[in-house]
């Protein structure tokens, strides 16, 4: 009887398998991100990271992203393969946190006795919270002629019955734990002349936010 060589039995093929991988991550914009994916199998498997958003591939167990930007927030897939069986895959989700950025501001005309809307939209992670102020720093509060409607990424000032007292400058503040930004806009009577224009202001810290608002008020006096 023929004898088969012992080596044919000593090293059987083993499908590639991921045995350890990074957990989902939540980081701040500008942080460095390091992901790992460890795999076993026989023959030794390859490990590849795939970027779903842009389709980029990176060879090796480790994926390093330097100073991550908000547009890089996505799922990354680790793929390991050694040709014995279908590849083993696993995904890691990376969330990138950043302070609010107000994306659009527009002055709005309005007629007395009619309805009107001022809009404030902000992109942020975590989601921004909103507050509205009049030009004299008074917080805007809902009443029977004005309602504040906050949605996921925007806040609306809904004027259900415009009166003379409603005309003027409104400032929207959008904030989360990473910072804040503000924007000013006018509700105006068509044909009226106002000195101000809709404006977007940069990111502010909690203290700087009130400082800038105070300076703005002083300049108008």
Automatic annotation (TrEMBL):
InterPro entries: Ig-like_dom (IPR007110), Ig-like_dom_sf (IPR036179), Ig-like_fold (IPR013783), Ig_sub (IPR003599), Ig_sub2 (IPR003598), IgLON_domain (IPR050876)
PROSITE patterns assigned to the protein according to its UniProt record, in alphabetical order: IG_LIKE
Domain Ig-like residue range list: 6-95, 99-188
Keyword vocabulary terms for this entry: Glycoprotein
Pfam families: Ig_3
Gene3D superfamilies: Immunoglobulins
Family designation: Belongs to the immunoglobulin superfamily. IgLON family.
Designated name of the protein: IgLON family member 5
Species annotation: Cyprinus carpio (Common carp)
């Amino acid at each position: 009887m023929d004898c088969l060589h012992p080596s044919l039995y000593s090293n059987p093929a083993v499908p590639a398998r991921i045995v350890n991988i990074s957990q989902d991550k939540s980081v701040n914009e500008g942080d460095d991100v390091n992901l790992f994916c460890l795999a076993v199998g026989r023959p030794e498997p390859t490990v590849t990271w795939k970027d779903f958003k842009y389709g980029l591939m990176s060879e090796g167990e480790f994926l390093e992203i330097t100073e991550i930007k908000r547009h890089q927030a996505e799922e990354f897939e680790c793929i390991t393969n050694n040709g014995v069986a279908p590849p083993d895959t696993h995904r890691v989700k990376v969330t990138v946190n950043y302070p609010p950025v107000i994306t659009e501001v527009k002055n709005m005309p309005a007629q007395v006795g009619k309805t009107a809307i001022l809009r404030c939209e902000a992109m942020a992670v975590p989601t921004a919270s909103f507050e509205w102020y009049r030009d004299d720093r008074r917080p805007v509060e809902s009443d029977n002629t004005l309602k504040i409607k906050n949605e996921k990424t925007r806040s609306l000032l809904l004027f259900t019955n415009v009166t003379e007292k409603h005309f003027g400058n409104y400032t929207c503040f959008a904030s989360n734990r990473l910072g804040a930004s503000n924007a000013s806009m006018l509700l105006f009577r068509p044909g009226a002349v106002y000195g101000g224009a809709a404006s977007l202001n940069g990111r502010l810290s909690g203290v700087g936010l009130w400082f800038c608002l105070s300076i703005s008020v002083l300049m108008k006096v």
